[in-house]
Amino acid sequence: MKKVILSKNAPAAIGPYSQAIESNGTLYISGQIPINPATGKIVEGGIKEQTEQVMKNIEAILTAAGYVFDDVVKSTCLLSEISNFASMNEVYASRYKINPPARAAFAVKDLPLGCLVEIETIATK
């Protein structure tokens, strides 16, 4: 059964998609960008500040669905520039200190709203 997950502590979808879908004990979180849900705007600062906001958004959705970072099994990180990888990785790693999930990271041509990072997440129970 498919269940739509919505958290007011994460930014609303900016297109025809859900923040997350839970199905058969697996949570699929749509790519999160560094929008502060309180302001509706991209956070100021560089890659570290933007990655921190993305991780906060992911955490809010995980929490709304009854999951935690330890439940995450796969992440896909999209970067506007691969030169930002090390700084993004530093912030990302702070959430996954033990048994981090599988992950892919790519540099892409453009990201929504001109942001520097987007991360999609899959978690299981």
Span between termini: 15 Å
Q: CATH class, anyone?
A: Alpha Beta
Which fold name fills CATH's third level, the topology?
60s Ribosomal Protein L30, Chain: A
Q: What class, by secondary structure content?
A: alpha+beta
Q: Tell me the number of structural domains.
A: 1
Largest sheet: 6 strands, mixed
Task: Count every helix, treating DSSP H or I runs of 4 or more residues as helices.
Answer: 2
Assign the CATH architecture: 2-Layer Sandwich
Oligomer status? single chain
Mean pLDDT: 96
Rg measurement, Å? 13 Å
CATH superfamily: RutC-like
List the helices and strands in order: EEEEEHEHEE
Which regions have little confidence, pLDDT < 50, spanning 5+ residues? none
Helix content range: 10-25%
DSSP strand tally: 8
Strand order of the largest sheet: 1-2-3-8-6-7
Bin the strand percentage: 25-35%
Q: Characterize the overall form.
A: globular
Give the SSE map.
Layout: E1 2-5, E2 20-23, E3 26-32, E4 35-36, E5 41-42, H1 47-65, E6 72-79, H2 85-93, E7 102-107, E8 117-124
Parallel strand pairs: 6-7
Antiparallel strand pairs: 1-2, 2-3, 3-8, 4-5, 6-8
Helix pairs in contact: 1-2
Explain what the structure shows.
The protein is of the alpha+beta class. It has a single domain, classed as 60s Ribosomal Protein L30, Chain: A (2-Layer Sandwich). It contains 2 helices and 8 strands, in the order E-E-E-E-E-H-E-H-E-E. It has helices spanning 47-65, 85-93; strands spanning 2-5, 20-23, 26-32, 35-36, 41-42, 72-79, 102-107, 117-124. The strands form 2 sheets. It has a 6-stranded mixed sheet, with helices on one face. A two-stranded antiparallel sheet has the order 4-5. The two termini are 15 Å apart.
